[in-house]
Amino acid sequence: MGSLFCSQKKIGMNNFIPVNTPLLSGNELKYVSECINTGWISSEGPFITEFERKFSEYVERKFGIAVSNGSAALDIAVKALGIGPGDEVIMPTFTIISPAQSIVISGATPVLVDSCLDTWNMDVSLIEAKITKNTKAILVVHIYGLPVDMDPILELCRIHNLLLIEDAAEMHGQTYNGRPCGSFGDISIFSFYPNKHITTGEGGMIVCNSEIIAEKCKKYRNLAFDPNGRRFVHDEIGWNYRMTNLQAALGLAQLENIDKHITRKREIGRIYNNGLLSLIGFKKPLEKTSYAENIYWVYGLIAENEESLNSVVKKLAINQIGTRPFFWCMHEQPVFKKMGFFLDEKYPNAERLARCGFYLPSGLGLQNDEINYIIDQINSY
Ligand SMILES: Cc1ncc(COP(=O)(O)O)c(C=O)c1O
Fold first, then answer.
1. DSSP string across 173-184
2. What is residue 252's predicted lDDT score, i.e. its pLDDT?
């Protein structure tokens, strides 16, 4: 299936439209040059603390801990909250593997929930039935552009005394009832991969309000060096998940333009929505819910069936348009089956999204004439 989808610019295909191109139109070069000129290229430079301060402020959190990527942020989040063997963490089956693997690596068990077919997020009405005496946390993942319905989840966490991890990797600048995504979790995380609303090349951020948790996260990103003890003596295991000053320099420049980026993302979504108004046989993204307006991290479509998906993706590829399939469900991951997880579990909505969903070029570098060309190709399908 993967071979049908293209995302990279291919050599000799000058007009190929990849699924993502980042936009680096601000102070990126200036700030990165400053790193080179001053020699601050490791994780010790001044851009790190500045980026952490400004980003955490942007999402209304007290602490920001910059790390090497979003997956690393999840590993740290799970460990810093003390989740481990014997614990269960409730999460959506329809997501990238990063949150599930962080839970599995910790020795805890992911407990899965099906998705809503309209928002593509986890169906919060199914969570309570999954809570057991071993449930330690709920891990929410905001998918593709609309946030998870947070109020019922916050209520469940309160009633059952559960921790909340918020994967806001795709959700910079999005809000839930006016409150920033990334401001809800005991720990919330972001990714800065180049397809995100702001990028550091590779990178991630943990945000939280507790100083104790923030200190743990800082420790675990840095090989669990003890900030108060003798150097090279460790009482715990951590990782080298540090971000470099070069990456933070990029991030700071990107953050200066985040509002412009969000506006453009919504504009791209609107152009697709209007252009594909009379498209039949494909379900388009929901424009808004009662609590949020879609931010269109990616512009996805759901085909009626797999044949229809394969044939449109093939047609788009022939016409130099990159696409990418939706996530593949956690309960259908061969690696987890081999480990004995999720045997015989079925989640029909998530399976439908995974089998029939794909997304169109949606990056910030996309030009309007390219979007119109893509729309024409789909409408002539
Ligand atoms: C929801 C979600 N969580 C986690 C990640 C992992 O982030 P990274 O690629 O920075 O490791 C991604 C990546 O796109 C994601 O979409």
1. T-EETTEETTSS
2. 98
